[in-house]
Amino acid sequence: MTALVRLSNATLGQLPTRVRVPRYDRAALSPGIVHIGLGNFHRAHQAWYQHRLFDAGLCHDWAIIGAGVRPQDAVQRDKLLEQDCLTTLLELDPKSSSAEVTGAMIGYVPVEPGHAALIAQMADPAIRIVALTVTEGGYYTDPASGGFDTGHPDIQHDAAYPDTPRTAFGAIIAALKQRRAAGHGAFTGLCCDNLQGNGDILRRTVVSLANMSDPELGAWIDQTCSFPNSMVDCIVPATGPNEIALVQSFGIDDRAPVTHEPFRQWVIEDDFCAGRPDWDKVGATFTADVHSYESMKIRILNAGHQVLANAGEVLGLETIADCMAHPQIAAFFRKVQTEEIAPHVAAVPGMTAMSYIGLIERRFANRAIVDTTRRVAFDGSSRHTGFVLPILRDGLAADAPVEGLALVEALWARMCEGTRENGSLIEPNDPFWPQLNTAARAARVRPLAWLEQRQFYGSLAQNPRFAMAFEHWLSALWARGCVHTLETYRQHGKLAEQA
Fold it and tell me: Mannitol dehydrogenase N-terminal domain location, by residue (predicted)?
């Protein structure tokens, strides 16, 4: 193997010719966006769109400044700064792979208590968009009410000490306060997390927090800032030793490469108070009807991930592709999708719910994408409440089939008990793991103990159709095992006693 080329601005010309590199002068870029949450997804998705715009000779005053608000983000910052904020993207098609170095990000603010550097960067009038990927569970939503969680310790701190906040939202408010005082005007807050109405949720979080300390500022933010809704889509696994080895096979020494599938989608509401890049010129879609796109994606892809991952964990399957290759899990996935999810999903231009299910099945089956069941099953307390339970409620309201969705919830409870069928332990994998594990153990004897977690299920435990189906399926999982239970659902599609 030839010597590796350490990734940097100075070495771009030394990379192998099969590696696509930036076609623009990075020194001529100027910042227009701060992005909080520089994980793999952002670098494979939004940053790629910006990079391709730069390649087309467009919007060079919209470069990205990275930011993070967690102490562990400092490690990512160090890695990226060491390579001039360049990232190698590795596209993994089942038949081949390719490498592209992207350079849309040109800086990364220090990660520090109080976030003074981040606040100063966002207060700079050159910044016209502040974007975020902070995970679905990062918006301080009260699981029981669905509203803003004013009692969370982080929120209480930021309300009491708004100039030295803990949260990204507190930092955004502090920056907007400085901009208003200096007469610089507002910026757009762009949520890029998998949440239905994500812009509305970001607005609620920021305005609600601002109102707790400065209602006048909160009103100004609500009136002058824009928070467009958006739908984002690209499967981006975590980076580990295999991904490091893959980037090295291209001759590149990159400490933070990103692998991704050969598919991207970005649908955005065109509501930007301080201008925006021309992302539509590189494949993004601007529309007034983001809701239909995000509903299709969240209900079929994101809820579909939960259909697969909990069963996969219980059976000890390593990846989502392994789940799709498992005959009972794959059949379970298709039956739930076609009979219990698709009826509650409207078509979008060029795509029906059924054709989208086929697309998702092909994407999930891509063995080149090593997307672990553990990653997908993480934070089920946010993902089930956000992705699965809304469909379940719609099904109950319409008197439509919900037995498969009840089985999805039973599989989550079975997984949270903490052991696989082979006897191995499932390590804690949720911010609320202790209480989930306690409830799951109690539910092994009394299944309805799981549904009594009102912070997740609300009044669903009182719905006899759902409660009876859940109780049946969880009892079956413990008595007969996962494969037998999934096969029972495949054959009957309802409670075995009624089949």
Answer: 32-281
For the chain, what is the domain count?
2
pLDDT tens-digit series, residues 452-485:
999 999 999 999 999 999 999 999 999 999 999 9
Co-location of 212 and 82 in the same domain:
yes
* H-run or E-run covering 469: helix 464-480
Of 10, 95, 96, 86, nearest to 48 by C-alpha is 86
Confidence of residue 300 (pLDDT cuts 50, 70, 90): very high
Question: Are 95 and 119 members of one domain?
Answer: yes
| Range of the structural domain that residue 458 is part of | 295-498
Cβ pair 404, 332 in contact under 8 A: yes
Domain with 48 in it: what CATH number? 3.40.50.720
The average pLDDT across 371-383 equals: 94
> In the listed set 288, 305, 325, which residue is the last one of a domain according to the structure?
288
- Going by C-alpha positions, the residue among 325, 254, 244, 201 that lies closest to residue 79 is 254
Q: By CB neighbour count within 10 A (0-12 exposed, 13-18 middle, 19+ buried), where does 340 fall?
A: buried
**pTM: predicted TM-score of the whole model, two decimal places:** 0.86
- Structural domain ending residue among the three candidates 231, 264, 288: 288
Average pLDDT, the chain: 95
Tokens 């991952």 belong to which residue? 309
